[in-house]
Design brief:
heterodimer, A: 328 residues, alpha+beta, ten-stranded mixed β-sheet, B: 313 residues, six-stranded mixed β-sheet, two-stranded antiparallel ribbon, 9 strands, 47% helix, binds zinc ion
Chain lengths: 328, 313
Amino acid sequence: MIFKCKNCGGNTVYSPEHEGMFCPYCESEKSHERKHDLYNITHCPDCSGELEIGEYTSALQCPYCSNYIILNERVEGEFTPKKMIPFKYSKNMVKQLMRDNFKSRVFAPTDFLSEVRLNSMTGEYVPFWLYDYDARCVYRGEGTKTRSWSSGEMHYTETSYYNIIRDMNVGYSDIPVDASIAMPDHIMDLMEPYNYDYMVDFVPEFMSGFNGQKYNMSVDTLEKRAIEKLRSSADTILRNSINGYSQVVATDRQVTPKRTDGKFCLLPVWKYIYKYKGEEYPFYINGQTGKIIGKAPVSKAKVKAYGFTLWASLTAIILMAGYIVTNF
Amino acid sequence: MSVEEFNAKKEARKHYLKYFRGWFVVVAIMLVLSGVVFARNLFGKGERTNDEAPDERVFDYADVLTDEEEEKLTKLIAKSEKKIQADIVLVTIDKSVEGDEAKEKYGYRSYYWDANMQDIADDFYDENMFGYDEEYSGALLLMNWYEDEEGSQRGAHLSTCGKVMDKFSTRKIDQVIDSVANVILSGGSPYKAYKAYVNKTVSLMGIGLPPYAIFLFLLAAAIIPIIVASSFVAVKSISKEGSVTTSSHTYVSERSSNNIIRDEFVRKNVTSRRIPRNTTSTGGGGGGVRSSGGGGRHISSSGRVHGGGSRRF
Ligand SMILES: [Zn+2]
Ligand SMILES: [Zn+2]
């Protein structure tokens, strides 16, 4: 499907600035109309250009006419996302974020933050599974407390022994696990947290203007990553509930998670791949919070030039200061 | 080179110049200042303003120098005076300046060697109108070679005036006399001793930095910029991918509840031990004495202020 403007026929997109559908051609708001409800297309319904559709792609831009196409069969049926968080940051806003964030990186290559390069970034709706759990956390252990004092010439040490018993039910909701093979797991983990308060029911028109994917793996396949996150959280919660002991020895520790829900959602991510000297430097920006993940590349030429200049200036200043002071 | 590359280079150069603007300004200012100081030292240093003094600087009344040595010393002194902007005079005598005989026969003020040596030196300096400038800047070394059956009166007095007096502390005066004494006591010739006097005076009148201070300064000039530049490079090269901004509670819902949170006291035991005695002591620090210029300041018979000091050896 393609969303078109009722007024001018242009391709309408979701605009974070307008918090809704927008036609960039005639600047109409909410003038969208769903067109080309076709299935299993291989060519652009508008210009008939051949599309390169990835295995999991659900939304893409036609390389010929630049219209944003949403693939019906990949956002419907079992692939219908339950919820989505629309982009809050537009491309222009993210460009500004990137500039602010990396302006102090003097060693970054000059074109790293150039308009042309930054324009190459794409907005991606990344498929996520959001898991709900009830976790029973049971803990038993022995804790010791020591207290010492002096009286006269004697020093006393008192050791008290305690049985520590914890039995807690911890509810978890919406633990996110990305269901995209193309997106690196550890980067997607660093994208967190998203603010779920702004999550809305899925509507396909909000995908217009962005790339998208259906889930690459099932809710069961990815569950182990959710449980990993849950366990690390539960361990911390248990640990934090045990206080005031100088030493603790656990005799029993059990975390039993029971999944209560797992829903397919689309979460917004901006992707900027900067190519420098034959290497790729990927940057990912949370499309809702603006959190940036990525390592700024370092230009060796700049390191040399800046390091040398600083060294030379400082040496010259010190030597000249010495000369002036001693010969004044 | 494409237009794009050309523009990127231009942009990079612009960033670079903007980034180091402050540094370049400081370097430029220092360069100008250094130039001014250099030019002043090259041309601007005051010419000798006192033309009442004789040209002679070496007065070898004790006759311990050959004519050739006297000439060499005079040349060295002429060169050195320009450098330090002060006169350097050498007087050698060979007569008793101590005891009844000295006082009565020669009409000295005192019975004592030190006082008389000082008087002779100061008076010689004042009577000959020595001094490079209006302040009568200069130094005069008076060396006595007298020896008789009662003993040796060998020793030297350094009289300072004007800028030299301001700069020479008692310690520096001692250093000059030491430089002479060391040569003579180790069997060196008088000529060598006086050359040492001239050179020591020049070096002490100079920047006043001992060699180790110069060494330390150069060491600092070599090391500090390397440390600063490399830490700058290190800090600016650190590139963090991003940090974890979730906590253990990010996904915990309100459905959570605590069934049991219990800490049961089981037992306790107490152990004791005797506290070992130990004593500690503290030490005290020492103080230091600092000396500045103007060592041995006094007024000579002509009424002019001199600095000075003497030692027998
Ligand atoms: Zn329109
Ligand atoms: Zn097309």
